[in-house]
Amino acid sequence: MPDGRSLVTGWTDGKIRAFTPQSGRLMYIIKDGHRGQADSNTVGSQVSGVQMQSRYGHLVPQGVTCLCPSIDCTNLITGGFDGEIKLW
Question: Rounded to an integer, what distance in angstroms lies between the CA atom of residue 10 and that of residue 8?
């Protein structure tokens, strides 16, 4: 975050995790961040629950794809593979 008190990350498992910048200790997890979803052109099965294989054999990322904190560190905006934008 811009205030330097946490490092917020988005993961392919759909969770948002925050860590302390000095020690790397986990501060919190937002478990229901974003879900991945396969389209009708996808074949194969989930790999570890976080990626799907496309019909061309490429792995398609899922979960949280972007995040941006507010300048005052009171809000977090995230986007995901599910096509949603969320304000936390």
Answer: 7
